[in-house]
Fold these 2 entries.
Entry 1:
Amino acid sequence: MPFDQNGHLIPGKISPLLEVPQQIVRPPYVGLATPPAYQGDNTYTEDEIEKIRTSGRIASRAIDAVSEAIRPGVTTRELDRIAHDYVIAQGAYPSTLGYRGFPKSCCTSVNEVICHGIPDDTVLREGDLINIDITAYLDGYHGDLNRTFRVGEVSEEADLLIQRTEQALMRGIKAVAPGREVNVIGRVIETYAKRFGYGVVRDFTGHGVGAAFHTGLIIPHYDSAPSYNDVIKPGMVFTIEPMLTLGTHEWDMWEDGWTVTTRDKSLTAQFEHTIVVREQGVEILTLSE
Ligand code: MF3
Ligand code: CO
Ligand code: CO
């Protein structure tokens, strides 16, 4: 049912909202159509960075928990339930729930879905790819990451796409240094992706994160110079989250207003970390350990 005769994904049925215990503090945007404007900059004190790391660790461990349930036959709704239960068990809030009306506690993006797939009654099949994107909010700060997983055994080209997309993220991270412009990140990612002829998604980007889910700072994954010339500074926090495809970088959006697919329905993968800039290089804030 959630796949058509060509094996392409179609919208499934979205279940009712899951509850969050009353004592868990909600981010300020919950219940609003648009988040309140973010006033601060993108640099943080050590105390704040520690809080982003705590949220990032919760989100990463939530993905670990979800990943153990990924197999043929599981629904994306069941995966969302695991993410939701894990995050609230840590006393944190799953940042996507109620963000601009998003109805679930994680994004589950299958095969040709580039990003922002909504968990529903889709049943995963052997050979599918699935990205799990989780953001946790605790003590005023968000940590945001995603990873792409294989459902059972996948084709060699899908397997390589996953490996190289993760490698693209790691190369983007290594390109970060104080004094450089943020457009260096996308230059490195796009150059690497082009070696394999992959599409590099342009219209969805990395972003400043921390005191707000999306602070307004934009981190492209393609070579955008001379645009996006914000200078990287120690203490800055943002995500890098490249989306690579086996075909086009062009996309379509479903009528749900969220689900973004490749226009040619080619497979796509994504990996994301939240990082903090240091005097020398960077530190990843979204690790499980
Ligand atoms: N976590 C996603 C990101 O990496 C944002 C998801 S917003 C949602 O920026 F509303 F779609 F959940
Ligand atoms: Co993000
Ligand atoms: Co994310």
Entry 2:
Amino acid sequence: MAWRSVISREYILPERVAIFDTTLRDGEQTPGVALTTDAKIEIAKALDDLGVDVIELGFPTVSKGEEEAIKKITRENLNSKTCVLARANKLDVDKAIECDVDWIHIFIATSDIHLKYKLRMSREEVIEKAVKIIEYARDHDVVVHFSAEDATRTDLDYLIRIFKAVEEAGANSIDIPDTVGFAVPSAIKIIVSTVKKNIGIPIAIHCHDDMGLAVANSLTAVESGAEIIHATVNGIGERAGNTSLEEVAVALHTLYGIRTNIKLEKIYEVSRLVEKLTGIIVPKNKAIVGENAFSHESGIHVHGVISSPQTYEPIEPEKVGRRRKIILGKHSGKHSVVELARRFGVELTDVQAEEVLREIKHRGDLGQKISDVHFLEILTKTANTDDFNRRITIRSISIHSSENTSVALLHLNILGESYVLAGYGRSEVEALLNIYRECLKKTYGFNINDYRIWLSPSPRLFSESEISLSRDGEEIVGKGVHLSPLIAFTQALVNALNQIMEKEGRKND
Ligand code: KIV
Ligand code: ZN
């Protein structure tokens, strides 16, 4: 809501903006990404659940598999409108019609660069081709969304001419793609407001992030009259990607007070799913969905956030399905130490807190990261907590891998007894996970929700791992940090198990 009244002095802001999601089309065009049919179905269902208005399912002409996946998804009868991409020719449009989608997204390039070097057509020929194909599609009773590819590098008078022609031919909405991420907000303002003055049908904006301006340009388009935003989850897409759905949706709600149909609290879950299925890792510092988006380390910030989260958080993490994290390191202050110790049930005196902080800063100066495991170890030494979190300790891990199988042997000390557990899998992580699943199944009935391993980019840095477990709404997050990613992962597993044992122990006391 923050800026609505200020911006409304100069702009007419809409009450609501529609989200056209193109994760399964432009997002899948991310170099190196190819989704299986099952993965596409899973993502389409998650997007539907998230509340996107339109899902662009793909480009049926690309391959047989793509066409079949699209047809399978349309049979799921999702609430979101479905759409596919088609070039401005009969072959593509017929294929799109066969897919039985609600919308067809027809595109043709309009910039002189594309006309000269790609299409080898005149401006008039392009208008004629666009009009003919739109009339053809409309005769088949489908909703047509028309994109003028490379619109932002197209002569503006010509752009208006082609948009007027396609509107007359029956297009239901038009889209202004910034195909190579070349526009700046002030240019978008001129382009979109000029189109708005000349066109009566809804206007969409489709931005690429080559200069890191996709979200800013999309928001400016809305200020200037666009009612539909094309976006992808995690901002994936061609080259540097597209407008991030999560960033634009949160900005619209929070900064402009503009509604979308997006259920913000589901954003993180969908982001994680897309990360997992596409293999495109979300950077830690990415807005809203990045690991650090709601993490605080510096003493000043942690102090502020503990007093009132508003001091250093623009939105409540829970609003987007996240949780606040306090990270320990060399920038930490006493407030972090006291607060985190309290979360582990330990009340520290002032002197103890200072001692713990000194050790944390010392380790930070050595370039080390402090995980829960290390923090508890320091607490145990300093505050004489009676072997807290030490019910299970790792004695050794050995992993043997061949091309297709891995075998893990985990030697643990559980309440003073020695146990060797074995697990098999297609990878080292799967072998360890299988041991862990077995432990959880046999003991506490927790399920593994999610896990992450951040590999160290150089041998001097530490790998980190987190695992999240849940049982009937109760959540446990285990953490590990180690030079070896597999030991960090095992530490996270064991740390979570220890927390469960601690909790169960307290219940039985
Ligand atoms: O970036 C682009 O121009 C596109 C079009 C197909 C809309 O993705
Ligand atoms: Zn694009």
